[in-house]
Backbone:
């Protein structure tokens, strides 16, 4: 049913919008910018910070534009002297209780509070007085929580509670003692946090950030006795350019490889090669389960935040998880076995650095299950953001770099591996291999459009080898919960389920470039990054994982076949029930 149209005036401009539109939205339609801090479109629209106040003729006081709905004939002023002065006071009060270490803050230059302070010409703090002091929570391998930089916008709380349905953090206490914390103010490492990092992406300041480990990488790069290998995830190459002011979704694979070589890595390989192994092992596992009708649906296991979630919340469903390690863990295991033997390198001297869009990978790499012969598959995980900092520290002009190719022999990958980085991609890639294996044919139909797109839950029926298989691709833990409840209740007739912890998949991971709330409301960042991955796939010469020449060679020379004893030992894992709270 079509909504009524409302006509109002904002800063002397006539505006016609749908009934139910907020003043903030109406102003945006005519190019009038109203500052915000707590506002996060469709996620946190509560009007807490009051930075978006405006004057409405005929009313006393100010209206909070992000929640105030428009009315017929309304006359709004967004930049009167009273409004400007009030915003200045609000901003001053926020800054007065904020740590002022901007030069050394990880969000310097990309902090919404800092940008507003510059915009409003805050040159000194008018309100001095008592400040809240809190210990920094840096126990987790993935997330650092520094409440001294928190502005109580509650954006992180809204994402954790409303989008992910976790509720690991919330606003505690009242008045001056108000703070964002966990149950009992314990570390995130001791509560039901999955380390998805969506809170970091939502935070406008440096109150939440990843556990940075680039100093360890620098030390290893300078050590002549250490053989340092970099491997890069598919989602990194379509986001890294944003850290250097390049358009969202730019494919910077060649420049990324060049920069890593200039940083001093001995080899630069593609995690997509590891993804090809994951796809083959996963497709083999799916076929076996399907034929034996055992532990269906099979659920993907390459998202460590999702794995931690099911271990804490649905341990009874763990048998449904694929036993496949995630691509970078598989690849790390092969680098310290097959590659080390081929190159005559002592595995103990190999230091594998995974460059990931995901901060939960930092947790994953240290799991006891991710070791072989006492060695970790992966020695360090850094995010897309951390890599950009390393490039800047080395004073490399990223945009001016020439393109380079990944090193051989472990740098060959397929288009199927590239789409791993977006929701639905893991499933589509696995189905390409599964249908060829089941039919014994090289089928031309390889695009499974049914599982593409940005929807949180995508259900489809796929026909393979004359049989119908029910599948569902899910991203975001709230959506995962919905599917798991169906499975638990015996109401789900699925054979294959893909689950990614982050809404949109890895391209929107907690370690990706952070976008301001304003930009996130104006652009579909997820789609731009996803389209870039699908373009890589479409332009690839080989688009099926089982046709990757280097993968075939490694199976022939080392692994024998999918699901072999050696493949199981190196490429597969186990899971464990975890307590939500360790307190």
Residues:
């Amino acid at each position: 049913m079509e909504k009524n149209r409302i006509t109002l005036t904002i800063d002397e401009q006539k505006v016609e919008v749908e009934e139910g539109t907020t003043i903030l939205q109406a102003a945006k339609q005519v190019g009038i910018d109203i500052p915000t801090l707590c506002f996060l479109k469709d996620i946190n629209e509560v009007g807490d910070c009051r930075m978006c106040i405006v004057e409405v003729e005929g009313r006393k006081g100010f209206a909070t534009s992000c929640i105030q709905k428009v009315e017929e004939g309304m006359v709004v002023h967004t930049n009167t002297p009273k409004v400007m002065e009030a915003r200045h006071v609000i901003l001053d009060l926020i800054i007065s209780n904020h740590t002022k270490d901007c030069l050394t803050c990880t969000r310097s230059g990309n902090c919404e509070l800092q940008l507003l302070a510059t915009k409003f010409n805050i040159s000194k703090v008018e309100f001095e007085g008592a400040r809240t002091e809190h210990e920094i929570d840096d126990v987790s391998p993935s997330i650092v929580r520094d409440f001294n930089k928190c502005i109580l916008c509650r954006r992180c709380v809204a994402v954790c509670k409303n989008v992910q349905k976790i509720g690991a953090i919330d606003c505690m206490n009242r008045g001056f003692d108000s703070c964002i914390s966990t149950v009992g103010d314990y570390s995130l490492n001791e509560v039901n946090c999955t380390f998805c990092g969506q809170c970091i992406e939502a935070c406008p300041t440096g109150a939440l950030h990843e556990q940075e480990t680039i100093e360890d990488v620098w030390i290893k790069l300078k050590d002549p006795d250490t053989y340092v290998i970099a491997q890069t995830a598919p989602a990194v190459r379509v986001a890294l350019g944003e850290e250097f002011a390049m358009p969202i979704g730019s494919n910077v694979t060649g420049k990324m490889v060049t920069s890593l070589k200039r940083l001093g890595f001995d080899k630069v390989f593609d995690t997509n090669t590891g993804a090809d192994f994951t796809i083959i092992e996963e497709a083999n596992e799916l076929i076996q389960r399907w034929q034996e009708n055992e532990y269906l649906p099979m659920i993907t296991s390459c998202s460590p935040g999702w794995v931690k979630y099911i271990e804490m919340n649905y341990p009874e469903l763990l048998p449904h998880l694929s036993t496949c390690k995630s691509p970078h863990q598989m690849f790390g295991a092969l680098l310290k076995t097959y590659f080390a033997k081929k190159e005559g390198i002592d595995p103990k001297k190999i230091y594998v650095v995974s460059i990931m869009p995901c901060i939960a990978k930092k947790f994953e790499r240290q799991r006891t299950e991710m070791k072989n012969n006492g060695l970790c598959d992966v020695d360090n995980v850094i995010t897309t953001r951390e890599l950009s900092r390393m490039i800047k520290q080395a004073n490399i002009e990223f945009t001016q770099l020439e393109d380079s190719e990944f090193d051989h022999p472990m740098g060959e990958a397929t288009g199927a591996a590239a789409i791993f980085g977006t929701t639905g991609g893991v499933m589509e890639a696995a189905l390409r291999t599964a249908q060829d294996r089941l039919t014994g044919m090289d089928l031309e139909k390889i695009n499974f459009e049914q599982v593409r797109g940005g929807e949180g839950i995508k259900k489809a029926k796929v026909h393979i080898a004359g049989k119908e298989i029910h599948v569902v691709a899910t991203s975001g833990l709230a959506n995962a919960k919905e599917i798991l409840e169906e499975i638990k209740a015996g109401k789900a007739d699925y054979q294959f389920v893909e689950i990614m912890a982050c809404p949109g998949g890895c391209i929107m991971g907690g370690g990706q470039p952070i976008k301001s709330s304003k930009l996130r409301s104006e652009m579909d960042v997820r789609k731009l990054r996803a389209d870039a991955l699908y373009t890589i796939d479409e332009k690839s010469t080989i688009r099926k994982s089982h046709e990757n020449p280097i993968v075939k060679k490694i199976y022939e020379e080392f692994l024998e076949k999918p699901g072999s004893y050696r493949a199981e030992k190196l490429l597969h894992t186990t899971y464990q029930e975890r307590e939500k709270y360790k307190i």
Q: What stands out?
A: The first strand starts at residue 5 and ends at 10. The two ends are 51 Å apart (CA to CA).
